[in-house]
Amino acid sequence: MNQLTESYVDSLALNAAAIKNGKDLARKKSFQSLSRTEDGTLLFGECKGSGKEPYRCSADFVNPDSPAFRCSCPSRQFPCKHLLGLMYAYVSGSPFSVAEVPQEIADKREKAEKREEKKRDAATAERAEPAKRKTNKSALVKKTAAQLEGLEIAEKLLRSLVQSGLGSVDKKTIKLLSEQCKQLGNYYIPGIQAAFRALLLDLEADRDREAMYTRAVSRMTLLHSLLKKSREHLTARRENPELPMDVDSTLEEKIGHAWQIAELRERGLAHADARLLQLAFRSFEDQARGEYVDEGYWIELATGRIRVTRTFRPFRAAKHIREEDSVFDVVRAGELLVYPGDLNARVRWETQTFEKPDAQTYDSALSGAVRSFPDAIKQVKNQIKNPLSDKHPVLLLAFREIVVDGEGRYALADEQGNKLPLADIAYLEQPTTHLLPLLHRRDVKGQAMLAMFEHDAEGGRLRAQPLSLVCDGGVVRLLY
Amino acid sequence: MSLETLHELDRETRRLFIAGSKLARGDLRLTKLLPAVKKLGEASPVFARVAQAVELTLGAEPDEADTRLLDLSALLHSIMHTQGRTDVPGEVSPLEGADSFDYGMQPYRKLKPVIEALTVKGQGRMEVIRQACEEGTVRDYRLILPAIAALDDSYAEIPEIAEEKIVPGFGQAALPALLASFRPDGGKGDSRRLRLIHRLQGEAAKALLLRAAEEGSPEVRAAAVEQLGSYADQESFLLAQADEKRKEVRRAALLALARVGTPAASDRIYRAFASKDRELAVEPIRLCADEELSQRAVAYARTVNENMAEDAAKSEEAWAPIQSALDALGDRKSTESTALLKELFSNPLFAAHAPYWLQRTAGDRLTDDDGQDARSFAVSLADNNRGRYLGISLYAAVRSMTPAEVYERFSKYKVTGKRKALAESMQALLPTISITMMREEQEEPFRLDPRWLELFIEQDELEVVTRLVGDFDRPAERYLLTKCEAKPQLAEEGTVHALLALFKIGSKQAPDMLMHVLAAGQRRTIYYLSPEQRYLLGLLPGSYADKLEQYTEKLHYPSVREQVLEIVSELREKPEDGSGGGKGIVEWIKQRMY
């Protein structure tokens, strides 16, 4: 149970409310009994609940890499507040009596052991001969046909909207379009459906009509490009079902494909043993997708690339999915899976261990920073001119100093004195530049800044918003 | 100007998107731009493509104009994304950064709720902020600005905690942001900012305080004037402010003068007290270290009492200076204040006309005054004013005379006419039996003559009797049993107190009487067990567990049944104790209860 610290328990909790509820149970002494085994591998206790019988919960660390949590309460949240409370009680030093492993848990341990063995056997067998994944060709043909049909509907909707003009859009049109948009759900193109819904959400928000027009025009233009590209791609696949998936761009994901681990592995997108340091984190609501998105920006220490992790939590299931959090430790991923993408490819990993970052970590992060702003700007423009690309690339920029003009506008200067304007961008919806003057004297010179770019169409300017500073002493987060 | 042309094209396409692509064919304004685009196209292939797209849009049939317009727009957007300017015009200077402080960085899940609580309106914010203060989450530097913004919050407790705890916690790091956001013409939030600036900067903020005191909005001026009380050299300025037209500034000036504490300051405060600003001067006098000032206020009140005319006494206003003087006195006691109290209680107009609150305040002050002179005066009040001061008198008596003397002197009031007042006075001196039995530590401020118990049994004052009984007052047993028998109901407070008293005196019949009351009472009327009733049931010996459990079957409300069953299981665990109702069990029950 060496890993049992307060921050470890915090990290297990699905969300902040669960932390609070767990702590309250421990603080209010709701546990009727608290026990641990002699060898320290098992905590168990009884917690008073609303039912007649107390809930029996246990945290089993016999296998430290994957502790087992069990509770007799009916909550669907896992780990439930009783388990969290049990562990908080332990880390806060509440007295635990020493006891034998209860029979019930001894049985469960045995069963788990057997299951583990079976799994290991299966794994060795698989390694010897990895099962070839076969695609069901006739199903694929059918699916492609359906997708093309869906595209046609989407295109029709878009064209009718353009023909009649945004000026004529009223509540009735939006209602009609929303209903038609719902039908797109039947054609295996959830990405396109979400893009269309985003357009409709923009049309609905008519507080500032002029700004809405500008946003809607750019959305329609993007949707047009997406539909065009998707059609080319899917038509080619219809002609030739053997055609491989597109791994050079995010097109598949934009249409709505959810990459599976096996697919990424097969396409050589898995890299063994990577070390990553999180530089920034944010969480936002994606209304069009109906999901919360937890987004982490990481630097892959070996390559200096800025990677993104995204966890989607559908509104309806949000309570039962862990809300991600800022990570301060270095993550060592057993296998890093890289999604097809642009400058900031999305990544994920299945197994991880944590290391405390040290001076060397920050040094190697700093050495991955882009030194010349003209270079950085070129990279960014090259990406954002492509209609289907991510329009908000994030780069780590080495800077000589942060400068400010008479009106409180900030800019970043590189070693050669090239400047890059800093500003709060609309996309992030959260200002950070106002934090710059609060930074410590040692951190505002000769460090690196993680910044997100945005092209401001109205002013015709490219700007960047600071997310974090990477300094030789650590990461200073401006966002989260 | 190629960029200018691009922007113009973009504006025109945007217009067409709003108007509808049906109108694109031969659009005049777009046509006008075409030659310029074409010209640019000669030099650059990209513009040649743009020119072509424009031509296609202009010439398109209505049913394909939409696609052409979208194509043109896509092309334009793509080009414009490569044209974003990044120049930084104008003079710039490097950011110097702040001095040493700890970022105190918190993870998202801890920080986000606090930022939201400080900046967004809604329920449950205070709870989040309080918890964050406890855990130290509020130290994160990203909260400096939200915390300063919260100084303007309309939910009063939030700006309070921001001013008292959160912002000062950042120390000097908060200062630049405070100074930058401080508006002398602002409202309450800015007064808070000013106080915080002074707190963090100390004397260095004096110039700012003086400026704010001269030029600020009334609220900010008041805050500035009050803060200037820390500086004795500001005496003359503050004296001038005490004559201000605005009330809040005068109040602040008087408070500041109270801290300055010079003779001139005291004089000015006294002058305010003796004038229409009396209300404003109460707090300053109370806070002022100058004892003499409060004596002067009391002396003023004595003259008011002395000169009270029969006609004037009927208006509450006439008594107000005396109330103010007592309020201004605070905890201080002196011969002067005792003299005032004595004069008040000796003034028949006071008893007849003084407002209720003044009588209360004066009474409380007299009982608080533990000087020999005050005590004997209070005791002598017993016969005054038809026994209305009997309570004050008895209070002083039990604290200044022997138990026997008190009994000799006060037992005579059991006569008709005074008996109710006597019982009430006695009752007010003693805590209820449940408080006495349930509280951890017993305090015994005074002792009473045992004859009182007999007297009140004889007078049939059950409540007083239960408050009076000691641990082994067996003589009360019969009386208490009769009282229980008369009203065998758990909902009856007197019966509960009588039962508690039976347990207290160690009556062997107490458990059976309790069971009898339970059995005889109406079960439907019990829908909740008060802590008192719970405690009472818990006093039963362990052997009564089964009987009590049987009783629950007849209870109407399931919640009560559950409460009683809990007690049953507690009784089962009770250690066997032959003596029954001994101290050991009471202690044991107390442990179970908390």
Molecular structure report:
The complex is a heterodimer of chains A (480) and B (594). Chain A has four domains: 6-125, no CATH class; 137-239; 260-360, OB fold (Dihydrolipoamide Acetyltransferase, E2P) (Beta Barrel); 373-477, OB fold (Dihydrolipoamide Acetyltransferase, E2P). In chain A, 36% of the residues lie in helices and 25% in strands. Chain A is built from twelve helices and 18 strands. Chain A has helices at 6-12, 16-27, 81-91, 103-128, 137-164, 171-183, 190-204, 209-239, 251-255, 261-266, 359-367, 373-384, and strands spanning 31-36, 42-47, 55-60, 68-71, 97-98, 270-286, 291-300, 306-314, 330-338, 347-349, 352-355, 394-398, 401-405, 410-413, 419-422, 448-456, 461-471, 474-477. In chain A, helix 7 runs antiparallel to helix 8 (209-239). With 594 residues, chain B is mostly helical. Helix content of chain B is 66%, strand content 1%. Chain B has 35 helices and one strand. Chain B has helices spanning 2-19, 28-43, 45-59, 62-81, 108-119, 125-135, 144-149, 157-170, 175-181, 188-201, 206-215, 218-227, 235-241, 247-260, 263-273, 278-287, 291-306, 316-329, 335-346, 348-353, 356-368, 372-379, 390-400, 403-410, 419-429, 433-438, 451-458, 462-468, 477-486, 493-504, 510-520, 531-538, 545-552, 558-573, 583-593; one strand at 92-94. Chain B starts with a helix and ends with a helix. The chains are: A alpha+beta (480), B mainly alpha (594). At the A-B interface, helix 2, helix 5, helix 8, strand 6 and helix 12 of A face helix 1, helix 4, strand 1 and helix 5 of B.
